[in-house]
Specification:
Elements: E1 4-5, H1 6-12, H2 18-26, E2 30-32, E3 35-36, E4 43-44, E5 51-53, E6 56-57, E7 65-70, E8 100-101, E9 110-116, H3 119-126, E10 134-140, H4 146-155, E11 169-173, E12 180-185, H5 192-198, E13 204-212, E14 215-216, E15 226-228, H6 231-238
Parallel strand pairs: 9-13
Antiparallel strand pairs: 1-4, 2-3, 2-5, 5-6, 7-9, 7-15, 8-9, 10-12, 10-13, 11-12, 13-14
Helix pairs in contact: 1-2
The chain binds uracil.
């Protein structure tokens, strides 16, 4: 990989603008290979140099991992004849060949969409055996019997077509006019969350993915915005919650 200016490498991660990068460099908050750097034009190799920005390690290596806050109306695919895809809406600075969404969100689902060019990583996090959970906030047209729903999700919902789902967690989010629930699932079947609530007699009217593994969607990302994950964030995706072994 050829070398590029340090401020350009950091800004193209999407973590901050080029002028914010320059300010951090002036403040002595950027390190390359363990030395504080004061020159924004320093030429670095993002695949081999260790770059730490305000305590966050930029990921280095061959592949990239992007967090997109997916808006409604965009499809989770690499290309589509009719609709814009999650790859189409990435900023040019993050676009490159072979990017694809790791897992599918419905066209009307919003929130955390992980986009990468690392096929092995995507395969690993999507395999049910690896137990990478996905957490959603679902708003319903009408309320369910929470305790009944919680137990049904825990036991493993049997969908209308006979598919038996893995155990899932259900938490009620109080103080909302619209019945709202947090759901944690451990696999990604077609329309899974919507079908789980349908099995309890309710329709999901809004669905947002807020977390993959232990990594929360960055609330600073507005709908349609994307940025690279840091090394620490990437490892949170495969990290287990503290109460699990
Ligand atoms: N479950 C659904 O029903 N839809 C999604 O987009 C994701 C999970």
């Amino acid at each position: 990989m050829s070398k590029e200016r340090l401020d350009k490498i950091i800004a193209s991660s999407g973590l901050m603008t080029r002028s914010e990068v320059k300010t951090l460099i002036k403040k002595g908050l950027v390190k390359v290979n363990n030395s504080t750097v004061k020159d924004a034009s320093l030429k670095c190799d993002c695949e081999t140099d260790d770059i730490i920005v305000d305590g966050k390690t930029l990921r280095k290596g061959k592949y990239i991992y992007i967090m997109l806050n997916k808006p409604k109306g965009v499809v989770s695919a690499t290309n589509d004849n009719k609709d814009l895809t999650v790859v189409d809406i990435l900023p040019d600075s993050l676009k490159r060949k072979n990017l694809f969404p790791a897992g599918r969100l419905d066209k009307d689902t919003t929130g955390f969409c992980l986009i990468t060019d690392d096929g092995d990583f995507a395969h690993d996090i999507l395999a049910p055996a690896h137990h990478v959970s996905k957490t959603y906030i679902a708003e319903l047209d009408r309320d369910i019997d929470f305790e009944k729903g919680r137990q049904a999700f825990k036991k493993g919902v049997v969908l209308a077509d006979g598919t038996v789902l893995l155990s899932a967690d259900l938490v009620k989010i109080e103080n909302n006019d619209i019945p709202t629930y947090k759901v944690v699932i451990n696999e990604g079947k077609y329309h899974q969350v919507k079908r789980m609530f349908a099995s309890l007699g309710s329709t999901v009217i809004e669905l947002k993915r807020i977390k993959i593994g232990e990594l929360l969607l960055d609330e600073k990302l507005k709908a349609g915005e994307a940025r690279l994950l840091t090394q620490e964030e990437l490892s949170k995706i495969t990290q287990r919650p503290h109460n699990m072994v």
